[in-house]
Amino acid sequence: MFLENTVNHKEQFGWIEVICGSMFSGKTEELIRRLKRAQFAKQKVEIFKPAIDVRYDEDMVVSHDENQIRSTPVPAAANIPILADGCDVVGIDEAQFFDDEIVSVCNDLANKGVRVIVAGLDMDFKGNPFGPMPNLMATAEYVTKVHAVCTRTGNLAQYSYRKSKNDDIVMLGEVDEYEPLSRAAYYKATMSEKIKTMKVKDVEDVTSKQKKPNA
């Protein structure tokens, strides 16, 4: 379990905490927990999320179990420093959807004495590092990786498998579009999709050759 750092008033620097994992792993739930503790301690807290995330609410950061906290939607990372002026704690949800400038924004805030808490997907649906998350994790003092439960094996899940055929890297979705899978389940699912695609292409190739007139 993550234990919040205590503030050393002699050292005028903050720090960065990253909460990462797959879909349905509790990233936003943990982000909200830490931010509400800071609010209870009467610290000045601001929460930001990408403006494109309107799945549950335009202004609230909402977890899958409907726990929520008020936030400010922003179109780009560059908007955060101005809005976060004078804050003790800054929370950022769905950080993978921000531009690369989010890394320097978080570090600048931490260098000014702000505690920065960031939550986001560490991998996209293809199993590749997602957006600015690797750099955020590398520069953070604390990284917490949370896991979902695999829907097919019951083991810990770290992959977000996309059930729909959309190949866009950025695609907001829920249980209809994604399911959390373990390494073994994800490997089997992706190999199954490749085999299906290969079979379809083979049939198309044979059909096209049969239709060609003899020379």
From TrEMBL:
The active site is at residue 94. The keyword ATP-binding applies. Gene3D superfamilies: 3.30.60.20, P-loop containing nucleotide triphosphate hydrolases. SUPFAM superfamilies: Glucocorticoid receptor-like (DNA-binding domain), P-loop containing nucleoside triphosphate hydrolases. GO terms for biological process: DNA biosynthetic process; thymidine metabolic process. Its EC number is 2.7.1.21. It is an enzyme of class 2 (transferase). ATP binds at residues 21-28, 93-96. It catalyses: thymidine + ATP = dTMP + ADP + H(+). Keywords: ATP-binding, Cytoplasm, DNA synthesis, Kinase, Nucleotide-binding, Transferase. This is Thymidine kinase. It comes from Hyunsoonleella flava. The gene is tdk.
